[in-house]
Design goal:
With 89 residues, the chain is mainly alpha-helical. The chain contains three helices and no strands. The protein has a domain at 27-79.
Length: 89
């Protein structure tokens, strides 16, 4: 006898779109990490950029829109040919 497949429960309102946004952001972060690894830059510069991406990843756990904005700025700087500057502490 074949198993009975029960439909998955409907997500709460807004839950699906948040999950999709998180998945989109995660993919963009993966792309950003790959681009940093491929850069013709010093190991120290790549390490600094990777730390910036890790901070954006950490921010995504608390505030997706803020993290998305930070990643967009990071990528714009990278696309513009300049190495994004890590935030001052």
């Amino acid at each position: 006898m074949s198993p009975v497949h029960q439909p998955s429960p409907d997500p709460e309102p807004g839950e699906s779109s948040e999950a999709e946004f998180y998945a989109f952001l995660a993919e963009r972060l993966r792309q950003a990490h790959a681009r940093v690894r491929a850069l013709d830059a010093s190991d120290a510069a790549k390490a600094s950029l990777t730390r910036s991406l890790l901070r954006i990843t950490e921010a995504a756990k608390r505030d997706l829109p803020d993290a998305a904005g930070r990643l967009a700025r990071f990528m714009e700087e990278l696309d513009g040919g300049q190495l994004p500057q890590p935030p001052a502490h």
